Structure formats: C-alpha cells, structure tokens
From TrEMBL:
This protein's UniProt keywords: Biotin
Phylogenetic placement of the source organism: Bacteria, Pseudomonadati, Bacteroidota, Flavobacteriia, Flavobacteriales
InterPro entries per UniProt: Biotin_BS (IPR001882), Biotin_Carboxyl_Carrier/Decarb (IPR050709), Biotin_lipoyl (IPR000089), Single_hybrid_motif (IPR011053)
Organism domain of life: Bacteria
Domain Lipoyl-binding: 79-161
Record keyword Flavoprotein present: no
SUPFAM superfamilies hit by this protein: Single hybrid motif
Listed transmembrane segments: none
Protein name as it appears in the record: Acetyl-CoA carboxylase biotin carboxyl carrier protein subunit
Pfam family, one: Biotin_lipoyl
C-alpha cells in the first residue's frame, strides 16, 4: 500500500499525493538542493531555498517562482484530525481542562508571572490528583475557576498573556 502525503502550497492550495506518484516523477539532481524535473513532457528547474525539518516546511523555487510548501504524512494528518497538534500548546493563551474533574487547588493569582512547566492548579480526575502546568512562560491574565469547581473537558481554566 502506498503512503499518502498532503501538500499545502502558499497556505492556499492543498492536495494529496501518493508515494507512487512521487516515485513516478522523472527527476535528476543537478546540484545540492537543485533538481531538474520532467513531468507531462514539461521541464522544471527546482531549488530548495530553505527548509525547516521539524515543521516539515520548505521554500522552493520552481522555474523562477517561489512557493512555501508544507508537507504532512499520514500520522501528521491523523494528529491534526484529532486536534492533538504538538505545537498548539505553545501558541494558545488559554489553559484548558484535559479531562473532566474537580479543581482541588488554584496555585496562582492574576498578574503572577509563571515559567513554562510551573504548576498552576490541581485537577482531581478519576480519584487522582493531576498538577496542571503552564504551557509557556507568561503572566496570568484571568482565572476562570475556583477551588471546588467541577469542570468539563476543554473548559477554559486560566488565560495567560
């Protein structure tokens, strides 16, 4: 079975391509980061200008035109579909409940500076106490819960700035 990849070009165009389709390209490496590609009897000169291996993003120049390309494999697509993006916690300013439970303690106050990984509150779920930590360094903007509150999954607990 062939693997499938999803390509997003310039944050506008999105399409799927299989490993078999990639292998069908007639391509020759001409220099480091340069390729000469024949596709449907058309010649293309492609150069990778920059790349971010961790984010799977590339800046590619094809026949003089520059494109930003993001590549996702099947695992990346599944993670995204489930809403479990790895980098989302670093971008968000809201701390949300990872599961339903009872707030045992709130260990911060509005205006307090916290470091990434610092404990901010304790949530009891399934008879276990879970210390929730700050997803990033910042300042506590607001606290939406108090000790003794019952919360549902994804309820906003603390807002940071």
């Amino acid at each position: 079975m062939s693997k499938t990849f999803q390509l997003k070009v310039n944050e506008t165009y999105s399409f799927d391509i299989t490993e078999a389709e990639i292998n069908a390209f007639d391509s020759i490496k001409t220099e480091v980061n340069n390729q000469h590609i024949l596709h449907n009897n058309t010649s293309f000169k492609a150069q990778i200008i920059s790349q971010n291996f961790n984010k799977k993003t590339y800046t590619v120049q094809v026949n003089g035109n520059v494109y930003e390309v993001a590549i996702a494999n099947e695992l990346d697509m599944l993670i995204n579909q489930l809403g479990l993006e790895v980098t989302s916690a670093k971008k968000e300013n809201d701390m949300k409940a990872p599961m339903p439970g009872l707030i045992v303690s709130v260990d911060v106050v509005v205006g307090q500076e916290v470091a990434e990984g610092e404990g901010v509150l304790v949530l009891e779920a399934m008879k276990m106490e879970n210390t929730l930590t700050a997803p990033k360094s910042g300042v506590i903007k607001s606290i939406a819960v108090s000790t003794g509150d019952k919360v549902e999954k994804n309820a906003v607990l603390i807002e940071m700035e």
